[in-house]
Amino acid sequence: MTAFRALSLAMLKGFARHRITLLFTFLFPLMFVVAFGLQHTGAPGGDPLPRMIPMLS
User: Fold this and answer.
1) Is the dihedral of CA 27, 33, 39, 42 positive or negative?
2) pLDDT reported for residue 54
3) Which of 1, 33, 31 is nearest to 10 (CA)?
């Protein structure tokens, strides 16, 4: 086994050993994608872009 492969395997084992790293690596970004995706969806047949708030002069 090469040194690179041994080091990669050791890092992968250490990564999987800590549950909180798995949470912040996979679940936390997925929650952001879902939240922002739901926030920026338009009504069916409507404009999918968010509305601009008019500025007062």
Assistant:
1) negative
2) 72
3) 1
